[in-house]
Amino acid sequence: MNTNIIVETARQTLVGAISFPEVVGHLLAAGVEYYHVDYVGMKKTFYSAEGDVVVTPINYEELPPVASDFSAEGIRADILDSQQNGQSYRDFTRRAMEAGVQGYFAFLRGKRVAYFGRQGDQHTEWFPGTQPADFTEQNIRAIYARPRTGADFPGLIRGLKSIGIVSYDHVIESGANVFHGASGETRLLGNMGPAFPVTPQSNVELLKGIISDHQRVLTDYSALCRLVGEAGVEKWVCDLMAMTCSYFDKSGNKMHVELIPAGEYRDRITRAL
User: Fold this and answer.
1) 124-134, pLDDT tens digit by residue?
2) DSSP helix/strand/coil, 36
3) For the chain, which residues make up each domain, given as ranges?
């Protein structure tokens, strides 16, 4: 590896003089295959395919300790702010540590970054524009654009699974979705639904009635989002492997878990009658 290029690239990163795509290009040219950022040891370790190692310090002062609890949402928001708004690497580092990131591995040839928490929690982020071919914004939005009612929610689930999505979060107050792939990749998409305020006080029984009405096609999707917000739901998380939809309040408490049936809701109700 070219130690001089690696050391200079690390220095420019810390002072905010270089973008992440430029970092990747310089390190690949220097023979780096992957590198490890250690927020506990405050250092970066660069590795070549042949096993060579170069270590550089992270010499920021007055950074917070790494939080004990890992926040996948926190690190995703941190990454997005860097990608879209160009926040400084120092601010990225501070927010990552506050989100419980102990460190991360950036795999340059693998085109992804794996973030780790103190308890083994992890989040994998693909380099921009390099997520698996099927797992794209265009394919996701095409699936959501297909006409359907609340009775055919399982049809939506089947479509998402067909492009490699294993779970997704829907956030009521922003109307955004975070999609998760089988290899740990994620994609945050805005405008996936209407945005509504969320009541601080949660009401589980009200939520159950709202879900039942929607399954019986008594409400549309916009009404569902508004009503669950009134019931105190901050987000719902659909696990497409376990076939469950879990609803969480603003304190992070799980309010209710609903099984996602394999067939249409309407078919299930008709058979029950």
Assistant:
1) 888 877 767 67
2) strand
3) 3-126, 137-272
| C-alpha distance across the termini of the chain, in Å | 70
d(CA 205, CA 175): 23
Same fold for the domain at 3-126 and the one at 137-272? yes
Q: The domain 137-272 belongs to what CATH superfamily?
A: YdfO-like (3.30.1810.10)
At 100-130, the pLDDT tens digits run 999 999 999 888 899 999 999 988 888 877 7
Which CATH fold topology does 3-126 show?
Answer: YdfO-like fold (3.30.1810)
**Nearest to residue 95, comparing CAs of 84, 109, 81, 83?**
81
Rounded Cα distance between 110 and 107, Å, is 5
**Cβ neighbours for 159, distance < 8 A, ≥ 6 positions apart:** 143, 146
Cα separation, 265 vs 155, whole angstroms: 10
Query: Hunting for tokens 């860097």 — which residue is that?
Result: 82
pTM > 0.85: yes or no: no
> Taking Cα atoms as reference points, which of 71, 69, 73 lies closest to residue 171?
73
Residue 83: both structure tokens together: 């990608």
Handedness of CA 44, 109, 12, 70 (dihedral sign): negative
Alpha carbon distance 83, 126 (integer Å)? 12
